[in-house]
Amino acid sequence: MIRKLTRLLAALILMFVGVSLMLVLFYKWAPVPITATMVLDGEVWERGLAKDWESLDNIDRNMVAAVIAGEDGKFCQHDGFDAEAIEKAIANNARGGRIKGGSTITQQTAKNVFLWQGGGYFRKGLEAWFAVLIENIWGKRRIMEVYLNVAETGIATYGVEAGAQRYFNHSAARLSRMEAARMAAALPLPKQRSVISPGGFTRRYGNMIAARMGAVRRDGLDACIYD
User: By residue range, what is the domain housing residue 6?
Assistant: First the structure.
């Protein structure tokens, strides 16, 4: 009995590894049509899904600089995980400060594309597995491209192209520094934070991101994407 269960478990693990590898390889080139987050989003069912896939070539560099400045300053330096950010997030949360996750853009992309929202060690373990895969198979430029196309940018709105059209009535190819900074500031809580009329914290955070964007260019923090 134990031997049969062991064989079954081994078969399931091998199947999971095979399927996950095929999905990662497929999405290395193909646009991601829909994700579990979109399917489970009640607002999408009520309002309809706003989502337009765009090549990274058609997304203004300001948007890339903004998400690096706001979400993952070491995106081009780490291998998918930022141990220092995770440690700081744990310490901050333990002190009762503003809740932070410490997840990199790679981890967020892995979660957004292949998994579901929410916590738990099981999902975190799967997230780590997919993060390793996309770091090694996709590379940084593709990770950024997919992230900017599947991230939730507003109510029933996914991707920066749909977000730019919704908030500014023009394409993501024409985002100004402040427009990109405002969108990046709202990314952690897009249903609660306003891009057009940001509240106190979101406004200050957007201004901080805009100020940091110069350093992203100056210090080559986006070099892995454009060089």
Answer: 1-30
